[in-house]
Description:
This protein is mainly beta.
Amino acid sequence: MVKDQKNSYVLFFKGGTVYNKDTKKYNPSKDLQFRVDGFSSADPKAFSKGELNAIARLYRSSFFDVPAVIIPKKGTVQEYGNLEIRLQTPASGNLFTQIVPLSLRGTR
């Protein structure tokens, strides 16, 4: 449970997509689409057994029903790229374009 993960950060993305109703040009999803990249597990086997040592999506009853991720303060390693938050905007049918409002080089 999230309340038991006191040594972690939760990133919650509040918002939604505003678009015209032409679904040939814009994705019909009303949810905010986002990605948080750059955090990985130093021990993937421990992560698969339930240890929070990498970034993870939060959910209540099904995957992607909460626009949030949890990141432990310790135990993660930086992946090959930067630490980034990406917002995905709907365009061209079901394709997304991305903007990166935050990119940190980290320690690698």
